[in-house]
Write a structure and sequence with these properties.
The chain is of the alpha/beta class. The protein contains 22 helices and 30 strands. It folds into 6 domains: about 110 residues, PriA, 3(prime) DNA-binding domain (GIY-YIG endonuclease, 3-Layer(aba) Sandwich), CATH 3.40.1440; about 70 residues, no CATH class; about 180 residues, Rossmann fold, CATH 3.40.50; about 170 residues, Rossmann fold; about 60 residues, no CATH class; about 90 residues, 2-Layer Sandwich (Alpha-Beta Plaits).
């Protein structure tokens, strides 16, 4: 009887969410093992598949694996993670499997290797042979002459270019045995990779609180069993140094570590700190790297050449053997939630992986997620605190300015009188300021003062934003653009103009107030090009600018010693979004951006402008009062039955018509008959139309939604298959972080 293998094919549809049995040809015996990418026949086509460690029951008419494309792409432990992800987040096995595969898998993995060509004979013999080939095979002669004149093998592509030869000529020399081909992983060099020549830095002296936290985590790492910690430290308290000590403890035990950072905080400044401490042990995984460099980094980790993995959310799936510690910095960040299937929450995946691998989990934040802090009080995590900044620097003084009073006093400027004066004084002292706005674009919307018309996207029915640089109106949901109106299309009035405030307008107002100041913008529009984000931050760090105007990007992990003022232009822009997490997000963002100041010798100051000065989020941010906010928000979550007091699953229906979206969602709910599960909806989403799709949603709540997830795993693929011709589909979001 032939050897059989269980293979998951790389095709997402309702009928392929399982392993299929294939026979293993004799010539491939020993290579078809768990983690291999293979070429297999499937129905009437050929697909890439992946060998998984499951039983392969005999079947009639079993078909054979045609080829092995790559080996060792994942381990049995990796497959266990895939199965858990598929069940927990109601996704197809292949969608989950793609998370743990290298940036290029299967046939691409083989192609991603760079081939170098060298001589298989002495150079003198190669030169003699080249002279004999000059007439009948001049391209082969040029190849041999080129190789004979260089001291080391050349990359295949470079050799062909230098010799002006084609691949067929090289194949002829390979067949004759006069040259040889060797595969190497692509070099990880380049401006987006860590420098490997950095000398290891000397660790600084710890504060007593840092020393206690590092000792507790280090002892847990040494024990070698799963333990979990919440490191709650105010901004500037030295959490990163505690992380570095935890990683060092894991290395000392012969293990490794994974350090997750929100993508936006993966600056050269952050990465170089890890490289200085651990040198060549560090590998980096994040989206700014090219596919080739990511693959090279992935290979270094898999081969055990790098045992410290630093990266964004996806680095959690790095092929690191026996991690001793897994760390999530800024664990509260929404960036740790993936918004496409599989819609996983990195905090929960990290917890599962740490438990399975006997690793220590460390969650760190100045403003922990409410549910995380609650679980720490309940014993799921051990709470460690860093209550003071390094060198006992004070937390910045926060001044709240009521913008209603400014308007009443006749000040219609973007800047309150208080903030305008503080900006002038700060720049005058040759210090730096950050102006924060939770918006992008030149204005919020365009409004007709005569009839009230708002310029809207014809597809999404949402307000368009005026971008001054391009002179166009832009929809930030579907990308639609249009030229600004000269007159109102409804009433013909000329009184139609931009209304509100965006980063461009703030920068323009700052330039008018401070004509001699150098001003930079950091937002989604100025960082479209690769490397722009790093260039702007490096310029500001070098004091090539006095004022940095930005959106959320300026709130994440930046450390500038000369910044002594942060101005928050409108603190309450996001407070009234129809999202249960809106209050928490506002408090966290305000506290985080306030933490960007006062990190050097100059004391820090924050001026917070708001139209809601009595709101809990504003009051607690003013006082740096995490505990007060936590207690108020926890009570609100308890009243409305949201995490940590319930699990939540959000199901959305998208369709070309509102009626189809509603009917599809209602059909699902009729099939589920949720029973003890609390259901909100179905109802239109807060943003009811995006692009050409109408959006409806239903929210399911309960103390244990395991059975609901199992039902959804069956019903959703069936309904999606049935409604495909109508262009309607369902999506499932377990542990949602946004309800918009």
């Amino acid at each position: 009887m032939p050897e059989l293998a269980a293979v998951v094919v790389d095709l997402v549809n309702p009928g392929t969410n399982r392993a299929f049995t294939y026979s293993v040809p004799v010539e491939l015996a020993g290579r078809v093992r768990c983690g291999a990418a293979v070429r297999v026949p499937f129905n009437k086509r050929w697909l890439t598949g992946y060998v998984v460690p499951e039983a392969a029951p005999p079947v009639e008419g079993v078909r054979s694996i045609a080829a092995v494309l790559a080996e060792g792409l994942f381990t049995p432990a990796g497959w266990e993670l895939v199965r858990w992800l598929s069940e927990r987040y109601v996704c197809h096995l292949v969608e989950a499997l793609r998370l743990i595969l290298p940036p290029r898998a299967g046939a691409q993995a083989a192609r991603a290797r760079q081939f170098k060509v060298g001589l298989a004979v002495p150079p003198e013999e190669a030169l003699a042979l080249s002279r004999g080939l000059e007439r009948r095979a001049p391209a082969q002669a040029r190849l041999l002459k080129t190789l004979a004149e260089v001291p080391a093998p050349l990359a295949r592509a470079r050799l062909l270019a230098l010799a002006d030869a084609g691949a067929d000529s090289l194949k002829g020399l390979l067949r004759r045995g006069v040259v040889s081909l060797a595969a190497e992983a692509p070099a990880a060099a380049g401006k987006n990779a860590l420098r490997a020549d950095l000398s290891c830095g000397v660790p600084p002296e710890l504060t007593p609180a840092q020393a206690a936290a590092a000792a507790a985590i280090g002892a847990a790492v040494k024990e070698g069993n799963y333990q979990a910690f919440l490191l709650h430290g105010v901004t500037g308290s030295g959490k990163t140094e505690v992380y570095l000590r935890a990683l060092a403890a894991a290395l000392a035990e012969g293990r490794g570590g994974i350090m997750l950072v929100p993508e936006i905080a993966l600056t050269p400044q952050t990465l170089e700190r890890f490289a200085r401490r651990f040198g060549r042990e560090v590998a980096v995984l994040h989206s700014a790297l090219s596919a080739g460099v990511r693959y090279a980094q992935w290979e270094r980790i898999r081969r055990g050449e790098a045992r410290v993995v630093v990266g964004a959310r996806s680095a959690l799936f790095a092929p690191l053997a026996r991690p001793g510690v897994i760390i999530l910095d800024e664990e509260h960040e929404p960036a740790y939630k993936q918004e496409e299937s599989p819609r996983y929450l990195a905090r929960e995946v990290a917890r599962w992986r740490a438990r399975q691998e006997g690793a220590v989990l460390v969650l760190g934040s100045a403003t922990p997620a409410v549910e995380t802090y609650y679980y720490a009080t309940q014993g799921r995590y051990r709470l460690l605190t860093l209550p003071e900044r390094i060198a006992r620097r004070p937390l910045p003084e926060v001044t709240v300015v009521d913008m209603r009073a400014e308007l009443a006093a006749g000040n219609r400027s973007i800047f309150s009188r208080n903030l305008a004066q503080a900006l002038e004084e700060t720049v005058g002292r040759r210090e730096q300021a950050i102006l924060f706005l939770n918006r992008r674009g030149y204005s919020t919307f365009v409004l007709c003062r005569q009839c009230g018309l708002v310029a809207s996207c014809p597809r999404c029915e949402l307000a368009l934003t005026l971008h001054q640089d391009s002179g166009r109106l832009v929809c930030h949901h579907c990308g639609y653009t249009a030229l600004p109106y000269r007159t109102c299309p409804r009433c013909g009035s000329r009184y139609i103009r931009d209304f509100g405030c965006g980063t461009e307008r703030v920068a323009s107002a700052a330039a008018q107030l401070l004509p001699a100041a150098r001003i930079l913008r950091l937002d989604g529009d100025t960082t479209v090009r690769r490397g722009a984000h790093d260039r702007i931050l490096s310029s500001f760090a070098a004091h090539e600018a006095d004022v940095l105007v930005g959106t959320q990007m300026v709130a994440k992990g930046l450390d500038f010693a000369r910044v002594s003022l942060v101005g928050i232009i409108s603190a309450d822009l996001a407070l009234h979004l129809p999202d249960p997490y809106a209050w928490e997000r506002t408090f966290q963002l305000l506290e985080q951006v306030a933490g960007r100041t006062g990190r050097g010798e100059a004391p820090g100051r924050v001026i917070l402008q708001t139209y809601n000065p009595a709101h809990t989020s504003i009051v607690c941010a003013e006082r740096h009062d995490y505990g007060g906010f936590y207690r108020a928000e926890l009570a609100r979550r308890r009243r409305h039955h949201y995490p940590p007091f319930a699990e939540v699953v959000l199901v959305r229906a998208l369709a070309p018509s509102e009626e189809a979206a509603r009917r599809l969602l209602e059909e699902l709910m009729a099939r589920l008959a949720a029973g003890e599960v609390e259901v909100e909806g179905p109802a239109p989403c807060p943003f009811p139309k995006t692009g050409d799709d109408y959006r409806w949603q239903a929210i399911f709540k309960g103390t244990d939604l395991g059975e609901l997830r199992r039902r959804l795993a069956v019903e959703v693929p069936e309904l999606n298959a049935g409604w495909r011709r109508q262009g309607a589909r369902l999506s499932v979001d377990v542990d949602p972080m946004s309800y918009l």
